[in-house]
From TrEMBL, chains A, B:
InterPro entries listed in its UniProt record: Ntn_hydrolases_N (IPR029055), Proteasome_sua/b (IPR001353), UCP009120_prtse (IPR016545)
Gene3D superfamilies documented for this protein: Glutamine Phosphoribosylpyrophosphate, subunit 1, domain 1
Name of protein: Peptidase
GO biological process, one term: proteolysis involved in protein catabolic process
Recorded GO CC terms: proteasome core complex
SUPFAM superfamilies, alphabetized: N-terminal nucleophile aminohydrolases (Ntn hydrolases) (SSF56235)
Domain of life where this protein originates: Bacteria
Amino acid sequence: MTYCVGMLVEKGIVMMSDTRTNSGVDNISVFRKMFHWNVPGERIISVMTAGNLATTQAVISQLEERTKTPDDRINTLLGAPTMFQVATEIGKLVRETISERQSANGLTGKGKFTASVIVAGQIAGMEPRLFMVYPEGNFIEASFDTPFFQIGETKYGRPIIIRGYDRSMSFEDAVKLLIVSFDSTLKANLSVGLPLDLMVIERDAFAPTHEKRIAQDDPYFQAISSSWGDALKSAFHSLPDYSFYSK
Amino acid sequence: MTYCVGMLVEKGIVMMSDTRTNSGVDNISVFRKMFHWNVPGERIISVMTAGNLATTQAVISQLEERTKTPDDRINTLLGAPTMFQVATEIGKLVRETISERQSANGLTGKGKFTASVIVAGQIAGMEPRLFMVYPEGNFIEASFDTPFFQIGETKYGRPIIIRGYDRSMSFEDAVKLLIVSFDSTLKANLSVGLPLDLMVIERDAFAPTHEKRIAQDDPYFQAISSSWGDALKSAFHSLPDYSFYSK
């Protein structure tokens, strides 16, 4: 499993992903699920992937044209005129990759080769945009009505985002919110695991404003993880008490 | 879908269930999923069901021997010597009911006839006990290591129970905790719906200590639902702030 969230705020976009991949509970590994490309001053594109690792790695490798020698490579995403075109291109690659694997030689594996992708970024002269690309290659775009997308193990960490989100929040608060959401998920599902990858895309910066890998020993993560339990308990006790005798 | 939680505390057991059943999003109904039987001063048994409604209703009807005229009925649960025997009996009925439906006349419906049951209660001279019965008829018992069972849509409402639970909590706090858990779930999944059924089983009472149907217009539910958002936000803001510049 996996947990990734892309969140739109007025100041830009915050992306966070875990790094655990697993095949059963006895075969776990750390793989990066967040990738980005940028042309300083012109565009930044960030991608997070969930699903079959061979599929998602194949998609990323094709985006980077790793079939060619380094000098011959042209990353299509860096030439796409709009973020819509970027999402379309990624959708096409995802659909083709899954479809090839599923039909290859009539072989049908036990696993499914499906994958989902969150795509975020901004190209100069246009707004920052956030998309979710489905395995079929189609996609939807976030707006302030539904300002975040989750992929993978989405449920445990969803209520706190719904309650805590505010479009005018600072990047620092947005990161804090995502860390709480990830901590709730990590506590409930073994197939989501540290370290976490974090990237902040500030409007009109066209370069990562902030990037970090958050490991088990990260003091801020530890502080949030340990103090959130107490903070929740205080919140809980601040609520009105139930009485057996009221109507 | 469904959401039911049975929770063991030192003082006894608290049970809460929603009442929504749905077949698609355009065919929703209200059905009771919580049932209880008791012999005053001797035993109380409470059951909550999730899964295929025809299956769960058939199980309950067979428990009550509704194939017989009222005078001839003997509820097996009321004669079982131990709660273990009660869970065994329910497990047997669940397994048989599912297995009959699935093999009947070689017909295979689109739906699955599966069901899960939470069983709680106490018989005089023994401890209060809480079980989760699987569709296969086998079951597990709660202890203070894992003091609650959820069935149905379990994920959204789980983190708050994990954080808020305390075995020595009052029944009132336990009810408050479950209402918060249900509210988070209701906000995220349309297939879980009000009203909620609540029952409190106090140790050595052998009768329901408290029973209530909590509807949309319940003032306590409304107070929790509206103040939990604010309480969570305060909890969130009480956490240390993230900084881009710390290591």
